[in-house]
Design brief:
By secondary structure, the chain is an alpha/beta fold. Helices cover 31% and strands 14% of the residues. Helix 9 packs antiparallel against helix 10 and helix 12 runs parallel beside helix 13. The protein is globular.
Length: 486
């Protein structure tokens, strides 16, 4: 019985059985690269001639690419976007049982003897012609209010970070499913043969929940659909550069010989994984030129750094990654995911939330503005949001400085811009305490269905058969939120 991966036993007699050992000593160090992440099926996300599934997209897309600004830790919706004056008026009162209902609470606040309501310590004003209510923590975002489409009634089942982040990235609370970027690469292929179709950048800020490569992994899809992480270090992609003393010509010759070996084995085994391996070698070679070009922001004019803020000059910051994201979008990278940790404010929310907003506000707004100025916003879908929201009641003692907010899956706010969504629009509504959805709820599966739709994909038709059944990103429900589409 065969599957798509070659199966070997201890009794196999194959002249290429020791190929892995041979590669480790081949090409004056090139074998070390072969055993590195780029040459593992799944490390590089694009290959020359990668056109995706025949027949995709299903219809004309509104967006050509996505930039997803993921705010890990769960931003507090009622302190940023979901203005609730009654919550402020009822500050200190007990959360009504009629509001809480049967919702489960985390162990961090579930055993409190009291759940006092905590009004926002920040000021809200309406902005733009749309009149969007935005906290004074986000002055730069407020200036682009008329470019944004707010989703005020997002919700999920996950109540803790691990399942919550995994759900938002893969459509399931359980690890092992393909990420959204992997699904898009699988369905649509790559637009630039010299760069991955799916690129990930994680801010170097410490703290918060761990952000591991499983979140941008390809799950049960072929490994070539993994996201490729760009680091802030000198070597943006590990194992990409040739060893000292090996010039580009020598590397090309070594790859040609290595490809011949792969072709010989391919003829004898018909293993499709070898085709992926060959393509990844070739992509790695091309990326030696393309990655340094796209990640080096030193050629940007002074006006660009002023737009994104002073942090944009510091590699690894959220601002620098936003600027890199625009450069990647210009080069045809289809899905660009930024991860910004630090939004998990169980205490000291007054100071900590202010700090998180300061690090992200200007750069987020700058990215939207920059894309718009370059004529790219119409076909680029920008997404901002976390894995769930925060509670309207206080975690811990209700102190003006030290109080915090617990996890809250019942409702939270996200925003989108460009890519065929309505500008200057707010969708959905929560109750007076930003605790429950009362209109226009958008489940995570609905969000995914809508994102795929904007890329020209019917979410019910992008499937992959695994372990006897067909899976999809919106497994097994979800509806396109048509009210937010332009």
């Amino acid at each position: 019985m065969r599957n798509n991966k070659r199966m070997c036993t201890g009794n196999d007699i194959n002249p290429f059985r020791s190929r892995r050992k041979f590669l480790s000593q081949f090409g004056q160090g090139l074998g070390s690269v072969a055993l590195g992440s780029l040459l593992n099926p799944g490390s590089a996300a694009a290959a020359s001639g990668d056109q995706g599934i025949p027949g995709k997209p299903d219809f004309a897309p509104k967006a050509k690419r996505i930039i997803y600004l993921f705010q890990s830790g769960a931003p507090s919706q009622m302190d940023l976007y979901d203005y609730k004056p009654r919550l402020n008026r009822d500050h200190g009162k007990e959360l009504p049982e009629s509001v809480r209902g049967e919702q489960r609470l985390t162990n961090m606040s579930g055993f409190q003897s009291s759940l006092p309501l905590a009004g926002s310590p920040f000021q809200f004003k309406q902005h733009g012609d749309s009149g969007a209510w935005i906290s004074d923590l986000l002055p730069h975002t407020a200036r682009i209010a008329d470019d944004l489409c707010f989703i005020k009634a997002a919700y999920t089942e996950a109540i803790n970070h691990g399942p919550g982040v995994t759900m938002m990235q893969t459509g399931s609370q359980f690890p092992g499913r393909p990420s959204m970027g992997s699904w898009l690469h699988y369905g649509l292929g790559s637009e630039n043969a010299d760069l991955p179709a799916f690129v990930v950048m994680v801010s170097t800020e410490r703290g918060g929940q761990p952000l591991t490569s499983a979140l941008w992994g390809s799950g049960f899809l072929p490994g070539k659909y993994d996201g490729v992480e760009l680091r802030s270090a000198k070597d943006a992609v590990l194992y990409l550069n040739s060893p000292n003393g090996i010039d580009r010509g020598s590397r090309r010759k070594a790859l040609d010989r290595l490809q011949q070996l792969h072709r010989l084995e391919l003829e004898s085994t018909s293993d499709p994984a070898l085709e992926t391996r060959i393509a990844q070698y070739e992509l790695a070679f091309r990326m030696q030129m393309s990655i340094p070009e796209v990640t080096d922001i030193s050629d940007e004019p002074e006006s660009t750094f002023e737009l994104y803020g002073k942090d944009s000059r510091t590699p690894g910051t959220y601002a620098a990654n936003c600027l890199r994201a625009r450069r990647l979008a210009e080069k045809g990278v289809r899905f660009i995911q930024l991860y910004q940790p630090g939004w998990d404010h169980h205490s000291g929310i007054t100071g900590q939330l202010k700090n998180s907003a300061r690090k992200t506000d200007q750069a987020s707004a700058a990215l939207v503005t920059d894309l718009k100025n370059r004529g790219m916003l119409d076909d680029t879908l920008v997404i901002w949001g976390g894995e769930f929201g925060r509670t309207s009641y206080c975690q811990g003692k209700l102190d003006p400085v030290s109080f915090g907010r617990d996890h809250h899956p019942r409702c939270f706010t996200m925003w989108m811009a460009g890519g065929g969504v309505k500008a200057g629009y707010s969708h959905g509504e929560t109750d007076d305490y930003s605790y429950n959805v009362i209109d226009g709820g958008v489940h995570v599966h609905d969000l995914h269905a809508t994102i795929l739709h904007q890329m020209g994909i019917n979410h019910e038709k992008l499937t992959f058969k695994y372990q006897g059944r067909h899976f999809r990103l919106t497994d097994v429900h979800g509806h396109v939120v048509k009210d937010i589409l332009a």
